Amino acid sequence: MFRKLIRFYKAIYHLSREQEGLKMMVGKVLSNQIKSLPITSLHDAEFKVFSQFGDDGIIQYLINNVPISNKVFIEFGVEDYKESNTRFLLMNNNWRGLIMDASEENIKEIQHEDIYWKYELTAKATFITRENINQLIKDAGLSGEIGLLHIDIDGNDWWVWQAIEVIDPVIVIVEYNSVFGIDRAITVPYAADFSFTKAHHSNLYWGASLLSFCDLAQEKGYAFVGSDSSGNNAYFVRKDKVGSLKVLTAQEGYVSSRYREGRDEKGGLTYVSGKDRIEVIRGMQVYNTRKNQLEVL
What is the pTM of this model? Predict the structure, then answer.
C-alpha cells in the first residue's frame, strides 16, 4: 500500500501551487502509513512533499519514533523555502520554527506568503558564521532543547555545528559532501565569508565529509542513524533519545550522491559523476578534523 501511495504521489508532485492542498493530503496519508511500517533503513521511509529528496518521509518517521517534547525546529540555508526539509513539518505537524537565509529577497518573499501568518514561523535574513550563530538563535528567543536542527549552507556546515552551544536539538540533519568520499575526516577550511560558488568554479568544493560529521556528532553526544538514499543529508539523534533506532557507522550509512551538479569555468553543467568529481577539485586545500591540520585533496 505504501509503495502504491508513493507512486501516486510522484505522479502529482509537480502540481501547481493552487493544488498544494492535494499534495499535503497525500503527504499526510503517507506520514500516517509510516507509523506502522517495519522500517529497516531510513530509505524505506522516504517521500517528499517539499523536501528536495525523500527527507520529508524520513523526518516523519523519526519524529514518530523519537520522544520530542519541544516541537520547535531551526533550519538555515532555506532559500525561498519552497523546497525545504521543515516546511512539511510546519504545515503537517504544526511545529513552530526559525528559518534563516543569506538572501534578503528570499526572506521577504517568505514573509509575504500565507504560510507566514498561518503558522508560527520566524524568517530572518542573515549570513551565518560560527561567530554569530549562537547569538542569532538567542535573539530569536530559542535555547535549550529543541526538536530538530537542519544545517545546509553549502560551506561552513561542520564549523557552524561545532560552534553551536545555545541549543540542544534532539534530531540534527546536516548536508554532507559525498564527493569527499568516506575514508577521510575533512572539511573546507573555515572562512567566515566562504561561498562555494567563489571557492571553486565547479561548485563541488564545499562542506565536510560524512566521516567528519560522524566524529563531531560523537563528540556532541549524537548517534548516526543513516543518510537519505540520494547521498545528500545525514541524520543524527541524541544518544539519550535514540531508543531502538539502528545506529550506524559512517561506512555503513554512507551513500555516494548521483546528482551531477559540477560546472565548468563558464558556469555550464559538466555532468561529471562518481569518482571523477574528486579529480576536478584535486589539489584543493582541506582541513583534517582528526589531525587538526591542513591537507590537500
Answer: 0.93
